[in-house]
Specification:
It is built from 7 helices and 6 strands. The protein is globular. About 35% of the residues lie in helices and about 15% in strands.
Length: about 210
């Protein structure tokens, strides 16, 4: 058995500004830092979670989230788990991009690349290849914590349930969320333990 504990990084300035972003380095906002702190407390206090393997992408927003989650081990970093490379339009606002490339999303074509960047199929292929290698070298009954991105996590779900990439947006999870997949065999669909769950906001309860 293998468990994947999938965390999307906390909210970044690009999320607030509604930028295309992709693979560019963007810092967390104060809200994103708060989300990561809450998630860390939830993992340790409620789940008593201690991962066997801890992984992040190489992007700043994922790395900073991992630091704030405060798991007492140093994560391995994989560039293959970075967000899709949006190339020339990374710092464009989404409304500008949608206006200049009105056919990019409709109909969605996983093989259509961002200008000067990757396609969603490129993203999927590198994420799936990387995850297969991670799982292959993991011990039996490993619990693997991965702090990454919306596109990365979406790709993992598409592979897990053999869902066509044309439904890519259906698996986009929220910033600071946790999803858990439990595999008896990595080549068969896993049990969905948690999907897009947010930790309770301790401050809101006071």
């Amino acid at each position: 058995m293998i468990e994947l504990w999938l965390v999307r990084h906390g909210a970044s300035s690009a999320n607030v500004e509604k930028l295309v972003t992709g693979c560019k380095d963007i810092p967390l906002t104060k809200e994103g830092e708060h989300q990561a702190n809450l998630l860390g407390k939830w993992l340790s206090n409620y789940w008593e979670f201690d991962p066997d393997i801890y992984i992040t992408s190489t992007m700043k927003r994922a790395d900073d989230t991992a630091d704030l989650i405060n798991i007492p081990c140093i994560p391995e970093k994989y560039a293959e788990l970075n967000e899709a490379d949006a190339g020339d339009v990374s710092y464009w606002k989404r409304d500008k991009f949608d206006a200049e490339y009105p056919d990019f999303w409709q109909p969605f074509d996983e093989n259509r690349p961002f200008p000067g960047g990757e396609s969603h199929k490129d993203l999927y292929d590198r994420v799936v290849f990387c995850m297969q290698n991670i799982v292959n070298k993991s011990p039996q009954n490993a619990r693997i914590l991965i702090v990454a991105h919306a596109g990365t996590i979406s790709s993992i779900f598409h592979h897990a349930y053999n869902v066509p990439m044309k439904y890519f947006s259906k698996f986009v999870v929220d910033n600071g969320s946790l999803s858990v997949l439990r595999y008896e065999d990595y080549d068969t669909p896993p049990e969905l333990v948690l999907y897009n769950q947010m930790p309770p906001d301790v401050k809101a309860k006071k």
